[in-house]
Specification:
438 residues; alpha/beta; Rossmann fold; N-(1-d-carboxylethyl)-l-norvaline Dehydrogenase, domain 2; six-stranded parallel sheet; globular; binds nicotinamide-adenine-dinucleotide; binds uridine-5'-diphosphate-glucuronic acid
Length: 438
């Protein structure tokens, strides 16, 4: 099929690359000239495992093209995916200006029947809005349909998630239109949920907010465990083995960051209130998450009477492993808190340092985790990259000034690290050594 993806970010680029890899003719459009130029030269704007290889190979074979010219994309395609950003406004409302702009451009250049598919995460009713904008602005009297096909990929495993999604949600105005999308996705052989446009739009927010709620719930329990002398890691194991609960998304720690859970839960709360329904559960999820880095900072401050003149090694800056994305990363809140308390920071992240440098040029960026711990008064694990899991603590002990470990993601074994001579502070577990209670 001939496909156009408007917006060549995480979603648009990965969607475009995967559809091309499946044999479709794909044009990726973006307003960012630099991004398109780089992509034409095989340079990826984001770090995503397997993406560069997939893009290069399909571009070379002519199935994947990049342009800033939306007219070219729209005219050449039967299905046009909207994959632009939908950032939050103050108060949580979703900023739909990019979606509106794309809808207007599509209307301008449509010359025959098109299926316009919304992949951006948008509040319920946006499909209707896109329809109205196109209807109002179309230059030719041609027919079109608007579909909602929310995206569930995760950064860091975007290609795999796109090729093997748990489900594909298609919110279409009619069976015939849904069939067209079914045909496009059939080759993946994954479960497909066919529904109406409004329900599909809500499925996306409900899914993200539900996952966020699992994380905040387990973090609430982590705080209780800490105060009550329990161990949240054991509690999670005890809960997660119940099939009805499941063990996924129950990792306690610094909470969720990224470009999606924070903005999508705020947007869902906003929409819920807009419709006059009760959003207090979603507000609580957000509130708990907002307290996570403050809680860890408080623990660090309690351990050291003053942070002034102290040096901290931060391991991990990305909002989660396997990405260079630092949007709403918990590391940023921690770095700010430590700097405000006049501490010195030595940080290391395998992919995200260049992005953090733009915000905090004043901290020391290191070549690896060991270099970061050199002369530090404590190390703080913020992002659980695999390479940090098997850290050689004997080596770290020889480099660090004080063997103190704050484990923001509970990836280390408290007893083991304590046996190696470290004071250990996790999230929702009792401290080992040092004798300072949480
Ligand atoms: P992004 O910021 O990485 O990319 C968006 C791209 O759209 C940018 O390159 C921008 O230049 C481009 N753009 C903006 N206006 C444009 C226009 N008028 N014409 C052409 N291009 C335009 O965003 P993203 O992370 O890919 O997210 C896109 C949407 O998908 C959002 O709604 C997001 O919530 C949703 N989503 C994201 C993820 C994720 O993991 N990142 C997963 C699922 C859903
Ligand atoms: C999330 C969803 O998982 C995707 O399905 C969705 O498509 C995407 O948002 C989106 O809508 O954009 P993503 O933000 O890439 O994907 O990352 P996740 O793996 O979900 O992690 C989000 C955050 O939650 C990270 O900061 C992670 O550290 C944190 N997290 C995750 C926890 O604190 N505990 C957990 O148990 C799991």
């Amino acid at each position: 099929m001939n496909i156009c993806a408007v917006g060549t970010g995480y979603v648009g680029l990965v969607t475009g690359a995967v559809f091309a890899d499946l044999g479709n003719e794909v044009i990726c459009v973006d307003v960012d000239k630099e991004k398109i130029e780089s992509l034409k030269n095989g340079i990826m704007p984001i770090y995503e495992p397997g993406l560069r290889e997939m893009v290069t190979h399909n571009a070379r074979d002519g199935r994947l093209r990049f342009t800033t010219d939306i007219k070219e994309g729209v005219r050449a395609s039967e299905i046009v995916f909207i994959c632009v950003n939908t950032p939050p406004k103050d108060g949580g409302e979703t900023d739909l200006s990019y979606v509106r702009a794309v809808a207007k451009s599509i209307a301008e250049w449509m010359d025959d029947y098109k299926i316009i598919v919304n992949k951006s995460t948008v509040p319920v009713g946006t499909g209707d809005l896109v329809r109205e904008i196109i209807e109002k602005n179309k230059h030719k009297d041609v027919d079109f349909d608007v579909v909602s096909n929310p995206e569930f990929l995760r950064e860091g495993s975007a290609i795999k998630d796109t090729l093997e999604p748990d489900r594909i949600v298609i919110g279409a105005p009619s069976k015939n239109v849904a069939m067209k999308l079914l045909e496009l996705y059939a080759v993946l052989e994954r479960p497909m949920i066919i529904t109406d446009v409004h329900s599909a739009e809500i499925i996306k927010y409900a899914s993200n907010a539900f996952l966020a709620s699992k994380i905040s719930f387990v973090n609430l329990i982590a705080d209780l465990c800490e105060l009550a002398g329990a161990n949240v890691n054991h509690v999670v194991r005890g809960m997660g083995t119940d099939k009805r609960i499941g063990s996924l998304f129950l990792q306690p720690g610094l909470g969720y960051g990224g470009s999606c859970f924070p903005k999508d839960s705020s947007s869902l709360a906003h929409t819920t209130r807009q419709y006059g329904a009760d959003a207090s559960l979603i507000d609580a999820i957000i509130h708990i998450n907002d307290q996570r880095s403050t809680r860890l900072l408080a623990k660090i401050k309690k351990r050291f009477s003053s942070l002034e003149g102290k040096t901290f090694a931060i391991l991990g800056l990305a909002f989660k492993p396997n990405t260079d994305d630092i949007r709403e990363a918990k590391s940023l809140e921690l770095v700010k808190g430590l700097l405000d308390s006049k501490a010195t920071i030595r940080a290391y992240d395998p992919e995200a340092m260049n992005n953090v440098k733009k915000i905090f040029p004043e901290i020391t960026y290191c070549q690896n985790a060991y270099e970061a711990t050199e002369g530090a008064d404590a190390m703080i694990l913020v992002t659980e990259w695999n390479e940090f899991k098997l850290l050689n603590f004997e080596k770290v002990k020889g480099l660090i000034r004080q063997p103190i470990l704050f484990d923001g993601r509970n990836i280390y074994d408290a007893k083991r690290t304590h046996a190696l001579g470290f004071e250990y502070y996790g999230m929702g577990v009792q401290p080992y050594g040092g004798g300072v209670s949480a």
